[in-house]
Amino acid sequence: MATKYELPEEVNEKRLRTLGMEVEMKTLKTNVAQEGETCELDDLEQQSEIRGRPRSYAFCEVDSDTDGRETKAMFSEDYLQTAGKSVSNANPLKIICVGDYTGGVRTKGVFVKDYLGIKPSHSFTCIDFYLKRVEWQRRGHLESCYSIFLQLCEISDMERFSAMTKVYFKYSKGALVFWGPHNPASLDGAVQWRKKIKKEVSLPIPCVLVTDNVADSCVKSVNWIGPGKIFESEVALDEFCKDHGFVDHFEIKSRDLESGEKSVFGQAVNCLLNEILQSEQKEAKT
């Protein structure tokens, strides 16, 4: 009798092993993205809120130790810490960097990395994040110096047509909008980016217009202000910024790997910081 049950037991064991493998493979398929698929956008959207609070996505970290930590809803005092104190508990102040293709040989990401003093280490397709601690002084309060934990968010030019921009813009407090005279159409792109920011960010945020007019051995700087040019005069440029909601404008004519916060890009960032923090302090007093 025993011999009659040996074969069925072996068959049953084989079937159980096969069933276990099938269950395991199905489990893997439901939890692991298939080859060629991307879950980057879904992950970003799902991670946008964690218990109702924003998440810091730091792919490149500069002078900080808070990669991937949770942060709460941000107000001006949360950004500030007196100089000399650790910023490990400070909330990042988010600035987005957007704009169409400028027509030059550089991208806005190059200027971000020059400002941070780092070499390009990887390429990206949609969005990239950088963290940096900067020193800030209130206007008229030279004795008060504060450390600000800054998050720069670089968004690809093609993302203007994406439905994900509302997620990318979330919790941003200011924007650097790029254009370049080598591609005059990018000026209209800057206006469209400004409109998109106004539409998709819940509260008004300051925006600075940045002109990429960098020259090198391949491309020369363009004279874009004057009679018959893109702007007839500096006054016309100022009026353009006022009409389209830009608080100021800056022109980058060359790469600057050493000046950091004193570079043209750094001056544009500082301009935004002044606008953001001063306006929030006024709101806090009212």
TrEMBL record:
Protein's name according to its UniProt entry: Multi-organism toxin transport
Pfam short name (any one): Ras
User: Would you say which domain of life the source belongs to?
Assistant: Eukaryota
**A GO MF label:** GTPase activity
- The residue range of the signal peptide is none
